[in-house]
Amino acid sequence: MIKDGILVQSMGFNKYLPIGHPKTTIEFISRWNVDEIIVLDISDKKKDISLTNGLLKLISKNCFVPIAVGGGIQTIEHAKSLISSGADKIVLNTHAFKENSLVTQISDQFGSQCVVGSIDAKIVAPEKYRAFIENGKIDTKMNVTDWAKKLQILGAGEIFLNSIDRDGSKLGYDLKLIERVKKEIDIPLIACGGVGKFSDFSDAVLISNADACAAGNIFHFVEHSTILAKANMFARGINVRLDNRASYINRSFDSDGRLLMLEGQKLKETILKRGSLDIL
Amino acid sequence: MSVSNICIVDYGMGNIGSITNAFEILGHSVDVSSDREVISSAHGLILPGVGAFPKAMNNLRDLQILDVIKDFAIEQEKPVLGICLGMQLLATSSEENGHHLGLGLIPGQVKKIPGNELPVPQVGWNDINLRHDSSIFEGILDNTDFYFVHSYYFSCERKFVSSTTNYGMDLTASIECKNVFGVQFHPERSHRYGLKVLENFHKLCSV
Lengths: 280, 207
Hints:
The complex is a heterodimer. Chain A is an alpha/beta fold. Chain A has ten helices and twelve strands. Chain A has helices spanning 22-31, 53-60, 76-84, 94-98, 101-110, 144-154, 175-184, 199-206, 225-235, 264-269; strands spanning 2-3, 6-11, 15-20, 37-40, 67-70, 89-92, 115-125, 128-133, 138-143, 158-163, 189-192, 212-213. In chain A, α7 links the parallel β10 (158-163) and β11. The radius of gyration of chain A is 19 Å and the shape is globular. Chain B has one domain: Class I glutamine amidotransferase (GATase) domain (Rossmann fold), CATH 3.40.50. Chain B contains six helices and 13 strands. In chain B, the strands form two sheets. A nine-stranded mixed beta sheet of chain B has the order 2-1-3-4-13-12-11-8-9, with helices on both faces.
């Protein structure tokens, strides 16, 4: 998430801590086996658009995985310019709700695979989730599942489902929410919000049937973070792409998904070789 | 001056920026053009492509470069690589939005992916199964993942299929016929091994 030009960490949709320049994060995440990257501009749109075409060109320059871009997109022209600056997909949230035809327009012109319908969900009563827009500030009064179904009909190719309550909480994904929405749609569902440990990712897939797992905060603070996340999933039988040299495939993890250290004897046996030249 | 420059054909459809970025990080300069001379004199051609078949063929027709591309492949026998929609354009014809003729450089028909309960388009990473030895897959192991985004696939005789991917059924992931190559996936979005495919193609063009 980019706010005022800086990559930020988010908590509960109202507290933001700076991480640094987005270019750095995207470069190392891209090297560490991430499958796709989502860049969201959460700046106050009345003041300035942080994610300019120039910034997007810069950050997508060394990113050789698909990149989805969103944050205040309200016109097809804006979508077009982001696509020519490097975006593979457009993420729509607030303005998809305010102007349904925007979803269809972009989907018709660029294909449904180019449109990600993003939903920020909040619990308003026990077992009741509603969709919020404007960075979680305004209640649409619409049930999350109904809105997801509508987005699919309007032309979205994927649903990005974020839990406002879990955001930054480290309590894990809201599995009930994910399961509920997944049951009602035919397009892929990306789960987001709440990851605290590497073992959380597998739960979204194995328990709630999510097609993809997204996270922000956890990836910024641990070496090889995205690789560790996937190694955990692989260990639990999930089919993930792992082709990095440091795949951790033969390593063990604790119940939280943290890497277990090698025993002394094992370390003695490990031969350290000079790494080869690698482009990425 | 012997510079092995590849030309990326610019016909208004395709994420050309991502492809040039890929070659840049590999350390190679490329031309991006729709000019007949530039295309004809290049050492290799890349046909990018994002969008629909009929529009792509119309754009190529309007730019009056259909014959130059065919000549490049058939008469000059220089390497051509079609990416995604670009690969589909190499076909005899496509059923996308009607019946449309393609470049006809590799015999085959472009058909809609049936899906068989899986959502169409296929969007995401999938592993490929290598079927024939192919120079563009040198140094790449069987079952390597690449990034796919497509609703249609290239249906042709087995001898032209260099790799397949499974999505509801085995779909053609790449094709090859002498100097003409096509990949259904996006190498410029397939990270390390995608870049390797592009590097391998570049090597072919440098001979």
